[in-house]
């Protein structure tokens, strides 16, 4: 089929836990911008075989969409080391998607985790 993985509530946690770098495209078949973004996402998946590219069909997986507060589609999310480091609605053009992937690759995850811990501490540790 393709170089992307269909994510469901059954395999989502395992996919995100077992892979250090997961891109997630929240989409639906009826969504025009989602269909326009699909070939861009597929091409990026082919060009970055070391990364996991997942797709969540928000119609088939409403629990996942709700769990992540997806308000509009397509929404692209990047999860590194089980931390969401990027989430943005809208179909990205190819150069912007490549740029986002490049930036996410360069992140110092120790710094990101430290920042998340500081934010959680500031909120009284509640999440």
UniProtKB/TrEMBL annotation:
Q: Does the keyword Cell cycle apply?
A: no
Q: Does the keyword Transmembrane apply?
A: no
Q: GO MF terms on file?
A: protein-disulfide reductase activity
Domain named Thioredoxin is located at 1-106
| GO cellular component, as recorded | cytosol
Keyword terms of this UniProt record:
Disulfide bond, Electron transport, Redox-active center, Transport
Q: What PANTHER family does the record tag this protein with?
A: GEO12009P1, THIOREDOXIN 2
What family is this protein classified in? Belongs to the thioredoxin family.
Q: What is this protein called?
A: Thioredoxin
Which species is this UniProt entry from?
Streptomyces phaeofaciens
């Amino acid at each position: 089929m393709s170089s992307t993985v269909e994510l469901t509530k059954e395999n989502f946690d395992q996919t995100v836990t077992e892979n250090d770098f997961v891109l997630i495209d929240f989409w639906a078949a009826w969504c025009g911008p989602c269909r326009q973004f699909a070939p861009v996402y597929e091409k990026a998946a082919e060009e970055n075989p070391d990364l996991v590219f997942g797709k969540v069909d928000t119609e088939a997986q409403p629990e996942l969409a709700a769990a992540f507060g997806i308000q509009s589609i397509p929404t692209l999310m990047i999860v590194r080391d089980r931390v969401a480091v990027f989430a943005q609605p809208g179909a990205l053009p190819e150069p912007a998607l490549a740029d986002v992937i490049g930036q996410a690759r360069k992140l110092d995850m120790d710094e990101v985790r430290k920042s998340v811990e500081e934010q959680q501490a500031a909120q009284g540790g509640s999440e």
